[in-house]
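2024-03-11 09:14:02 DEBUG pipeline.ingest accepted 1 chain
2024-03-11 09:14:02 DEBUG pipeline.ingest length=193
2024-03-11 09:14:03 DEBUG pipeline.predict start
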Amino acid sequence: MPLQLPPGMAGPGPVDADVRAFVVKDGSRVILVDTGMQADGVALDAGLASAGVSWTDVGDVALTHHHPDHIGALDHVMSSAPKASIWSGDVVPHTTQLSDGDRVGSLRVLATPGHTPGHICLVDDNTGDVLVGDCVGTFGSDLARPPAMFTADAAGLDRSLHRLAELGGRRMYFSHGSEIDDPWTALAALLER
């Protein structure tokens, strides 16, 4: 889902960004991670269809944090998948709060506060993949912290990034930016800067 930030929000000029939501299939269980920004959910509907998933298949929705670009279509999701359990690390109305180590199917919650107080990453224990939410993202081929103006606690974010680096994994999936070849080495380099 494309997003354009106006001048001054993430740099001197407008910044084009993308916003991703993820479908995780865990056997017959389908987990939607984040909802994107579009309240009408049109992009989510199309994404689910392209993944061969219908709303009746979605049993869980896990929100990495409460920012509008991650929960914007939550009302659409709740009406489209009324039987789905809705989970979040941050306090979000109509959700059940998750804590470090909790599970949503094969996804293990890794508390990574800083960007928001209750920000979470989700570790797929079946694959070793990590969905990092807004803990870190890519701009071009560079790994970067989220913009300071959108980060509640920079020191807390840094601690969470160190925790993420210690965890390691196979692949990192970013809510903003494209996948890169060796995200763990890039994360170590980011933390040295």
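2024-03-11 09:14:41 DEBUG pipeline.report The radius of gyration is 16 Å.
2024-03-11 09:14:41 DEBUG pipeline.predict end
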